[in-house]
Fold this sequence. Notes:
The protein is of the alpha+beta class and 419 residues long. The protein has 3 domains: 32-127, no CATH class; 137-250; 254-409, no CATH class. It has 10 helices and 25 strands. It has helices at 2-9, 13-33, 77-80, 119-122, 176-185, 198-208, 307-313, 341-355, 359-363, 366-383, and strands spanning 35-48, 54-56, 69-76, 88-93, 100-105, 110-112, 123-126, 129-147, 158-164, 167-175, 187-189, 212-216, 223-224, 234-235, 245-250, 254-256, 262-265, 280-281, 287-290, 293-296, 300-302, 317-322, 333-338, 396-401, 404-409. A 5-stranded mixed sheet has the order 6-4-1-3-7. Strands 2, 5, 8, 10 and 11 form a 5-stranded mixed sheet that branches. Helix 8 packs across helix 10 (366-383). It is elongated. 20% of the residues are buried.
Amino acid sequence: MISLLKSIFIDNWLKKLISLLLAIIVWFVVDQSLTSTKTINTIGVRVINLPSGKTINGMQPSGLLNKRFSLTIAGKKSHLEEISPSDLEIVIDGSEFTAENIINIQKKHLISLNPELSISNHVNKVYEKTLVINLVPFATEKIPIYVSRPIGEAPKGFQFLDVWPYHLNMSVSGPDEIIKKLKTRGLKLTFNLNDISKAELDRINSARQKNVVSFFIPEEWKTINLPSISDMPLRIDDPEAKFLRIDFIRSDTIPINFSIPVALFFPPEYKGPLSPSSISIGSSDLITSIKGMKLLNKQLYTRGVSETFVKIIKNMVFLSVNITPGNDEENIDWSIQFVNPTALEDRYLSTMITEINDDELKDMHPTLREEHLRNRFRNYMNRFSLFTAEDAELNLNIQLKGKEILLKESSLSTPPASF
């Protein structure tokens, strides 16, 4: 065994070493000299130096086209085996483009994005392939953005109130035809309430101690995706975007510490069996009469509005019993109505502007601030509801018995939506 190992590794060792080195050199030379061809798909195409006022459909702000290209190349096998589409890019100089251009892709158009790959040394040939590029007019316009009602659910303990502003604009550049379509139909921006945590709203609330908690939209949310224009989200550049907020109202219960009158409503075309003048509101545990006025005799509450709003509408709200054509006399409809809502809205606006201590609202243009506050008041009126001490929404059963309208609290009162 020893003699065998000696014969293999020691006898004539110098000749064997030289032979091994020569074999390695020959293998390396042959390997480096071997060539092959390879088709590489999805290579990016970038166009530079386009004529002023022109662009290409599908071209991104970086100059990359949204269409990928495939090329067959020949070169050193050892390098071609490792090449991927991300290592290469086709770059075309558009300085001499006309309206329609037929480009024969050659080796000169190919650049390497990989520092270890040299086009001149490792690629011998690019099999020509034709690329057609059509130039179109380039345009920049202000595109309207409509901020819609958010999706998702508000964090527990809060109720979605409003999103503001409702309308923004942003500058968008691209092919004239696409820009015109965008300007005509506008863009929609929708946020998701599920992306806002209760902890964040609690933090804001603890700092300001107000009924309304305003969550100002982070900068990274103020973007629009337009794949036909850009492969990256586009930032909304409207200066008013700094006011973009989602307002929440704490779902605290607010007592209604005033009496709510009850009135009958008859439409002019009422043709019931009785004359409206002969119908009156009957007495019950739910109704009290003071100086001939019928009032709800029950401690009620509301939620989803501010305490300021409740103070403003005091003595200017009533319960309307709506005796309308086709109404079921065993279950008459009712609604909450406001007296002179325009005057109430003006009063709310005056109160809020006087008491304003919100730095962001102070920075608003007066016209924009007024619009914001008026919209908030209307939102309060639309959502105003009555609740009982049991935290259930007030549910009334109203019937016409003889010549009297009888109001009773229904046992089918439903709990409010959870917040």
